[in-house]
Amino acid sequence: MKRFLPLVCALALLTGCAGTAEPVVQTFFAMDTVMSITAYDSGPTDGLVAAQQEVNRLEGLWSRTRSGSDVSRLNDAAGQWVEVDADTAALLEKANAAAQESAMAFDPALSPVMDAWGFGSTESETTAVHRVPSQEELDALLPLTRDLPQVEEGRARLPLEGQALDLGAIAKGAAAAYVVDALTEHGVESAIIALGGNITALGTKPDGSPFRVYVRDPQGSEEDYLCLMALPAGMTCSTSGGYERWFESGGEIYHHIIDPSDGYPAQSGLLSVTVVAQDPALADAWSTALYVLGAEEAVARWESGMGSVAGMELILVTEEGTVYITEGLEEGLETLGEEAGYTYEILRR
Ligand code: ADP
Ligand code: MG
Fold first, then answer.
1. How, if at all, do strands 343-347 and 322-326 pair?
2. Does the beta carbon of 119 lie inside 6 Å of ligand 1?
3. 286: Cβ below 6 Å to ligand 1?
4. Is the beta carbon of 106 within 6 A of some atom in ligand 1?
5. What is the mean pLDDT of residues 69-75?
6. Residues 6 or more apart in contact with residue 158 via CB below 8 angstroms
7. C-alpha to C-alpha distance for 79 and 156, rounded to whole angstroms
8. Are 166 and 117 contacting, i.e. CB atoms less than 8 angstroms apart?
9. Which of 83, 280, 286, 344 has its Cα between 20 and 30 A from that of 269?
């Protein structure tokens, strides 16, 4: 498993600008993943410290494993109202909207099923027991999913006893917005923020050109890349792929992105989905949702701009080796996977 090397879109630290001060990099482990913030301003230390503190605060609210977190308390008291932080209420509202707009391809209440596969975040990856649950087991657990948390001012509630939330597919993205705020408050104007597979550009590189990020080859090693692309100021790119976490049983590969409609690892014909969007939480949630929904549905949503995220652009990698890239990402794009057998197609509206 590649748990500790999850910078799916690796950073292209191409400073290449004579006279620019060396960037300051802050790397830390939080929310079960490696995070790094690279700031190009001089004297960004206070901002970096504040940003990391903010991530730690949010992890204290949204972790499923920490007792006393808002998510733990909601899960422990499933069926009853629980007082929650305003930031938790806001995240739950956003998660619910993504769930509804994705026709429940993204389901924040999928935990009971995730746990049955051993992908639940109640156990650390090193001790998790991965197994294929029986159909009876899944049939018994699926009714505990899909009912979304109810949210009112200052409080929330999982409607059914036995339900459990897992915000793993949206929380890291959501945290990026807080990191941006913390850095901005401390005067940082140029930084690239990588929270697991979510990368956010705060401003541009010091020379005014956009930051550039690598998107990984979902079938390659960590150093094999599909493309290098420009990430405009203020945008986030989020990648979801079945290759990130998986296990093998009876000759079959089972990965960690579950199709909530049947409780099995999604088999939509995609190897990875990269979503570029303005809102980092939505980029994160939708990369997971579109991975479940598949290329046809993803492209239809991109074309219509309906029922998804405003300003969204996509990179879809199919099992056949076709890489579909929406036209908004064409400028500044460098393809890198031809030798590995990929073919590239730009999608136009
Ligand atoms: P990662 O967190 O591994 O970078 P994602 O953002 O795609 O990748 O989130 C995957 C995680 O989200 C899984 O490990 C699991 O906890 C949870 N998850 C899996 N399938 C779904 C789904 N359909 N809806 C919501 N959460 C999911
Ligand atoms: Mg996600």
1. parallel
2. yes
3. no
4. yes
5. 98
6. 74, 75, 78, 79, 109, 147, 149, 164, 165
7. 10
8. no
9. 280
Q: Provide the sign of the torsion angle of the four alpha carbons 204, 206, 209, 213, taken in this order.
A: negative
pLDDT digits (tens, 9 = 90+) for 293-325: 999 999 999 998 866 788 899 999 999 999 999
Instruction: Measure the CA–CA gap between 308 and 112, rounded to whole angstroms.
Output: 26
- Residue 245 Cα to ligand 1 midpoint, Å, equals 10
Cα atoms in the 13 Å half-sphere on the side-chain side of 122: 18
The band of 124, judged by pLDDT with boundaries at 50, 70 and 90, is low
Are 232 and 241 in contact by the 8 Å Cβ rule? The answer is: no
User: Which atom in ligand 1 lies closest to the alpha carbon of residue 120?
Assistant: 16
0.85 exceeded by pTM: yes
For ligand 1, whether the C-beta of 59 sits within 6 Å is no
- Quote the tokens at residue 337: 């996977």
Q: What span, in angstroms and rounded, lies between the C-alpha atoms of 176 and 187?
A: 17
Domains of the chain, earliest start first: 60-157 (1.10.3980.10)
Q: How far apart are the first and last CA of the chain?
A: 38
Which amino acid does the sequence have at 302? Answer: W
Computed on alpha carbons and rounded to an integer, the radius of gyration of the chain in Å comes to 19
pLDDT at residue number 126: 55
Q: How many CB atoms lie within 10 A of CB 56?
A: 13
Higher pLDDT, 5 or 155: 155
Amino acid letter, residue 202: L
- pLDDT band, residue 8 (cuts 50/70/90): very low
Ligand 1 atom at minimum distance from 196 CA? 4
Distance between CA atoms of 275 and 239, rounded to whole angstroms? 6
Q: What is the pLDDT of residues 174-201, one digit of tens each?
A: 999 999 999 999 999 999 999 999 999 9
- What does DSSP assign to residue 266? P
10 burial via Cβ count (<10 Å: 0-12, 13-18, 19+):
middle
